[in-house]
């Protein structure tokens, strides 16, 4: 994908894809513009059958978006997120305690896949005994079409069933927190108020669901991608194990170099010129952040992973009003998971000659599995 981006940045930075019937934008400056100019590029890429705006924050435009974002910001504060650090470390230790104490583990299967699901579940007040149930639902929701044993319709039906059950489950949690508030996100969301306005129940429910969809696979991939970046060159992991001051820049650079979300879609609200091309009203535009983050016009040695790169104005979490709400949590999870890994396995290494299989969707970047050697 990175070679394709490079070619497109040079030869066709704003390009109409006949097959998909939509535009692709590749340069940093243009991606920045598409992501931040919400007046021209709407996040409402789809409408409900009734023509209504979606209840999902991610698909709302201002001014509606502003109102809901302000309310959820009140509940999802950096302080509330920071308070989770000890618990995230504990969960990480528990997960690592379960691996065979021999010489290898799979970063994805054993750590980066379960960790965000457990964190979100706890944040949302899912009881421990319901966790398996909850994990089943959220796995189904993010499942891609594999084409193996079922049709796309069957997969869609299963997803619908899972989201119905999840909604029902959260309804129960909400009812319970209404009567008896606790120190958790659902209680905070119920209480959050901006200018006398609160979240109504449908919006609260779809927000809970959005957290699952937006936060799990992305964080899994961030942790996996960071481990790839740190082990693909001998010595890097060991360097970081000795000097943790580089950990924050190492994570930001992994976000830039292998962005978990490679592209986001917008819809033109009006005819608009960008990069010398005219995009027509109602046409779709994919902003390739994965390409913007490799743009040599913006980043020196853009194709090199530099562990101490600073500043690092990557757009892995988006840009503008929809800037990732979960960025502080994702960073904290990555920092905590890597710290624990570095403590316990200062000699961790890639397995030599191993070919990693990428996830099939071009919109995300991550690997299906990531076996590593724990000791040399
Ligand atoms: C929005 C990426 C983790 C919740 C976004 C957007 C991006 C993004 C690119 C902007 C979408 C747009 O402009 O249309 C990521 C990445 C993550 C991550 C790369 C991990 C490395 C999380 C986590 C959560 C979360 C852990 C929550 C628990 C959200 C929400 C939005 C969002 C609620 C919508 C914000 C809005 O529309 O105002 N994320 N995300 N994300 N993210 Fe994340």
Automatic annotation (TrEMBL):
It comes from the Bacteria. CDD domains: P450_EryK-like. Keywords: Heme, Iron, Metal-binding, Monooxygenase, Oxidoreductase. Pfam families: p450. Belongs to the cytochrome P450 family. The keyword Iron applies. Gene3D superfamilies: Cytochrome P450. It comes from Paenibacillus hunanensis. This is Cytochrome P450. The keyword 4Fe-4S does not apply.
């Amino acid at each position: 994908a990175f070679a394709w981006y490079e070619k497109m940045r040079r030869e066709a930075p704003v390009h109409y894809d006949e097959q998909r019937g939509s535009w692709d934008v590749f340069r940093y400056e243009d991606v920045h513009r598409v992501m931040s100019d919400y007046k021209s590029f709407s996040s409402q890429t789809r409408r409900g059958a009734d023509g209504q705006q979606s209840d999902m924050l991610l698909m709302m435009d201002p001014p509606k978006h502003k109102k809901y974002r302000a309310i959820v910001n009140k509940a999802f504060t950096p302080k509330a997120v920071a308070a989770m650090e000890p618990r995230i470390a504990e969960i990480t230790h528990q997960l690592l305690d379960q691996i065979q104490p021999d010489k290898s583990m799979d970063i994805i299967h054993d750590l980066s896949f379960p960790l965000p699901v457990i964190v979100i579940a706890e944040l949302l007040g899912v009881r421990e005994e319901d966790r398996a149930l909850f994990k089943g639902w959220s796995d189904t929701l993010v499942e891609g079409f594999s084409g193996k044993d079922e049709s796309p319709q069957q997969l869609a039906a299963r997803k619908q069933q899972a989201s119905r059950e999840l909604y029902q489950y959260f309804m129960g949690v909400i009812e319970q927190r209404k009567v008896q508030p606790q120190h958790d996100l659902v209680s905070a969301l119920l209480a959050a108020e901006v200018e006398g306005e609160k979240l109504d129940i449908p919006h609260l429910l779809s927000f809970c669901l959005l957290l699952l969809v937006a936060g799990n696979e992305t964080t899994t991939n961030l942790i996996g991608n960071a481990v790839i970046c740190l082990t693909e060159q001998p010595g890097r992991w060991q360097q970081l194990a000795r000097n943790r001051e580089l950990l924050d820049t190492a994570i930001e650079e992994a976000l830039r170099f292998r962005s978990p979300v490679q592209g986001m879609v917008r819809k033109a609200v009006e005819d608009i010129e960008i990069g010398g091309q005219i995009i027509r009203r109602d046409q779709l535009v994919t902003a390739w952040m994965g390409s913007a983050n490799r743009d040599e016009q913006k980043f020196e040695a853009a194709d090199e992973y530099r562990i101490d790169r600073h500043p690092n104005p990557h757009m892995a979490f988006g840009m503008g009003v929809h800037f990732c709400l979960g960025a502080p949590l994702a960073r904290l999870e990555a920092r905590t998971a890597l710290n624990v890994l570095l403590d316990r396995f200062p000699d961790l290494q890639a397995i030599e000659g191993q070919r990693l299989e990428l996830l099939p969707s071009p919109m995300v970047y991550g690997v299906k599995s990531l076996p590593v050697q724990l000791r040399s």
